[in-house]
Write a structure and sequence with these properties.
alpha/beta; Dihydrodipicolinate Reductase, domain 2; 2 domains; homotetramer; about 20% strand; Rossmann fold; 7-stranded mixed β-sheet; 6-stranded parallel β-sheet
Chain lengths: ~375, ~375, ~375, ~375
């Protein structure tokens, strides 16, 4: 239960408990990580780090999320992090993580990075996509990029378990890849002409105030953004190609939806075999995800609402087939801050620390 | 101005004013029509008809929309409608309109129907799509279906002006066809594999209470519905084929968005000529819609938010091209209750009554 | 953890587990109760009852809340409920509960009723307030009304623990009484002229569709309703008078807020001693609620947002004093469906079954 | 109609058209003023001034509000403003207006100021309430404060018509004073113990990004703020005292509501004569506001929703009386950015320029 083990956040972790540092604690990624680890029986937060909030009492920043003993937020000091923690979850702006990560790894701290810094196997590819960050940073950690594990637990579980550095996937890639990969792997769809039309709540824009994310601006509106060339396009393609075994080109369009949380990805692909039915395709997904408790494949004709997975680490998938047009329609709903970010990070942490991947993660939503 | 001519709703219409009956007054379609005609200098509402609300004072039903002299809602009596009005706007459930329309036409009342009853040129086609309604009704008005004009003013203006019966298009078809038709007409895109991913506010579900449209259910959620085979698919295809000159097959998926009004259609199609740029394609749209004040083509890189057209009769269109994939991405935002329903109905009425199509229609949104 | 004990919902309850019937399972009260009992280590749902949904698979009604073994909803049969359960939570429309409750009590089932039927110690009082229900029902269970315990655990804990029948308080009374009672008990405020200005999300209106609760109607609006004479006025006064020891008259005005969950009560009262400060009054609350984990008293100057308690069984209280006017301002935020309804019901169940009151109840919100 | 006179915004104002400068054009106050003046037949915007946005094309800042000829935003230069305009509407942060206003007045430009700088008759009072601004500015314009007219048109119409400088009231004072003043003027209520519990949408927080106004933070929540001592308390009291003829002390508590626009004020006061009914009190309001088209007094039992006045310059008032407690409950709904800000500014401009006060102002909402 939520309140059953308040001691795990106090730093008095038992011998069997892994110690976790959360860096970037007051942003949404950090907040979610803290909330999810609250009550986790095997992972204890032992270091709260943040730049802007260093030196402040936790309750003065986040009165809505009381932590035991109301700790102070500390500066981001690799030495002290290594003293206090076995693992670190980094929830920092793109670019900053690549500066801190090597220092932590050198000191034996295993890292789950929620940023995009280590999601590409090739540093060059990262530099092409994150142009501005690349110009400011002059990274020379191509080896780290190559060794980092892309943290999609349902596909890279064993590698994550043994990794020193895990790059948690982006929210859009998570939602889009989960339904798509089984079909790519089995060669059931054409690998060109794939359309990913995605919709996200505004918390994906982070906690730093931006005009476009004000309630007054974002409410009562839906709009596309980053049309053609959004950074997550290449991230989705990289993983899709790895699984498909050859080039995949897709069209990715995100939309901003007037809600706090939730991400829905609607994916369109052409079936190679026009005889496949929605039931067949649902079976494909069920077979792949049968033993993965964070994935739920819905029956044909039931379509997921993001509310059904809100505050959970679940992805709900559904398939439909249009026999008239030969199109496969995949639908995938996640909570962008949980399965799309911090929850997936904790899922990776669980694997790294030797727990079942879903340990301590909520899988059942409150409704409505 | 809104308040400048209160007399036009009182029934004391001047000789130059056309008289309009609004039937189905207390649903969203009727309400919007009344609101839009309020202050119109050339169209006066002279008959308020409704079944459920007949006999009631208007103010007791809709205290938020005061009408001059606070009229009673009347029963739907063709004879009395014909005495009172030159035109009728029908905002009735699918099927009911086909019962009333012939009686009005016989009495010389010209009709704008907001339902789907006369949107198909072929009664057979309608019966295939609206199966349940067809079973209940046994319609035998194939001739009316054939003669009715599909009320998309930017494409059928002259026909609408001369029509006795206009079928106002559905909200999704309106938003989807406006950006798509110019490319189909000029043969610039492939006519198969078109994807229409559409998003609508909940007012599209009407004013009759449904569980799924409760704020508690629909808020903080986005979800697909009617995946594969939604009725508007065939309506879009019919008009697309008429303009393209041959068969068009498209994939249409609507999504419910937690907002009251607004409809965004994101359309994906493959360009035939891979050399076309976003600027070229924007020019294509601008050339077609230059003299249509209800259509605004945005510059390349500016994407429409539904809020920008809320409460207006405008469609805002934007184009992007992915030269890497050869995909054309069309975006189109409307207010589903105005340009997507009642506003388009009034636009048709304007043409039928000899006014400029945009007469009396708001084209500038309030923001935020 | 949420997923740690899936067996408790399967009916295979262990010897130490109390068996619970949930009647009215598909409304919001029933849904919340099921969700809260999911994963409870000491209370197992062993009977799902409902009228409208009887005979249906649970997953066909609520695909978003998977239950182990996907049970059928059963009819409301007192005999079979008594066979299957030690406790029953009734989430039924006002009036219906008074018909079922005696039959359950006779069969030894202890009842937590979420309706208003047993909230008044006097049946006459109930009949005056719930006039319409009283006319339809001709209740003759004045003794049950007298013996039922008003289920506010922080004030009636021991009585609840021993009760056969507990009437869970209304959402507005819960939020309003929690901050008010300590001041009434200690005689610190005038007992006339108290103003309770309350604000609730729309889920308080229930799951049965109503026009006023449609997203299209309730969104982007705040409005008062039930001004003067709302039924919860008398419920608040009854409990206030019991604690104050004499007559209390207050003005209660609810408002509908465009959000799903959450209830904020802002209470105004005149201090008897003009020298009391906000710190003094905060101390008063802290002293009373120190050992009650479901109540959190915020420091002076921190005001509760309903989001801070969403999906939790917590009430967050805050006090401010205006030394210029002598007014005490009390603020109280709860989740109307949890601490304001089903969570409070489970809190009562916990006491009745011998557990700590907060057992299995979430006390930490997800934010944002 | 909205689109009927596009020339009035082009600067080619006719001889009978008054010329208006809008300063602070890209904030919400400026945006609303521009939108409201769009289509006004007697007031033409001839100068767009802004600090941050100076030098930019209007369409690059606000693509959603196209202006004729797409003007450049200009610097705030008193000389050039005076050349171009007869009137200026200032929508600037508190404090800045007091620097610009004297320079405009000296050059013969009549000013409507939307800030709080000139709302107090006494500069000392202002300095006590706006402490921080006062420290930074060292204002010495006590005479201007004394001569400025408080721009509540229904109460100060003739003074506004003749004024050189009008201070448009705050949003909360507008909503609260309109229902309260008639009862204070006629001595029908006690002047102590008045409670004003107010609720506002987030656009009241302005367009400059703040964390607390992000959709992710403000959505799905209601919370009080500024409890005891909010600046609008003294502004309401000043005007209340002027009308009552003696001291008025009231308790004002604002709440943030998850919606864009709308402000509801619920006001509680004790009736002096316990025999007055809700009908009597409604008659009191109707008598006062009979000839004021921007005020609508609702029948007893109909309570205003803010949505009913959204995007309009209307205030909807309703009264209820609790004969049991002797309390008067006043409810008042406005659009905080229109009647609560820019619309009231235009109403004042109308009077100053010799038009009817409601000229060009929308009075009928779109619903839903």
């Amino acid at each position: 239960m939520d309140s059953s083990n308040p001691s795990v956040l106090t730093g008095m972790a038992s011998s069997r408990t892994a110690r976790v540092a959360v860096i970037g604690a007051s942003g949404y990624g950090g907040l979610q990580t803290l909330r999810l680890l609250h009550g986790h029986h095997g992972l204890a937060v032992t270091y709260l780090g943040g730049e802007r909030s260093a030196g402040q009492r936790w309750s003065s920043i986040c009165p809505f999320l009381p932590l035991p003993d109301d700790p102070f937020v500390q500066t981001v000091d690799p030495e002290r992090i290594a003293d206090a923690a076995d693992f670190a979850v980094l929830s920092l702006p793109n670019g900053l993580s690549s500066q801190l990560t090597p220092q932590l790894l050198q000191r034996g701290v295993r890292v789950v990075d929620l940023s995009a810094d280590f999601r590409y196997r090739s540093l060059d590819r990262w530099s092409q996509v994150y142009v501005q960050e690349a110009q400011n940073l002059k990274r020379q950690d191509a080896d780290l990029c190559r060794d980092a594990v892309y943290g999609l637990p349902e596909w890279h579980g064993p590698a994550i378990a043994g990794a020193a550095l895990v790059a948690a996937p982006g929210c859009f890639p998570t939602a889009s890849l989960l339904p798509l990969l089984p079909f790519l792997k089995q060669g059931l769809i054409e690998t060109d002409g794939i359309i990913v039309d995605a919709k996200t709540g505004t918390s994906g824009g982070g906690r730093v105030p931006k005009q476009s994310m004000l309630l007054a601006e974002a409410s009562e509106a839906i709009a596309p953004y980053g049309v053609v060339g959004h950074r997550h396009t290449s991230e989705i393609e990289q993983m899709a190609e790895e699984v498909a075994g050859h080039t995949v080109q897709l069209q990715f369009t995100p939309h901003l939806v007037p809600m706090v949380r939730g991400l829905l990805s609607t994916v369109y692909a052409r079936l190679r075999d026009p005889g496949l039915t929605a039931e067949d395709c649902t079976t494909v997904l069920q077979a792949v995800y049968r033993h993965h408790p964070c994935i739920e494949v819905l029956p044909v004709g039931t379509y997921p609402a993001t509310k059904w997975v809100r505050h959970t680490n679940k992805a709900m998938l559904s398939v439909q087939v249009d026999t008239r047009t030969g199109q496969l329609v995949l639908m995938s709903a996640i909570d962008n801050l949980v399965k799309g970010q911090a929850g997936q990070g904790v899922q990776c942490l669980n694997l790294m620390a030797g727990f079942d991947p879903e340990t301590g993660l909520p899988l059942q939503a409150f409704y409505p």
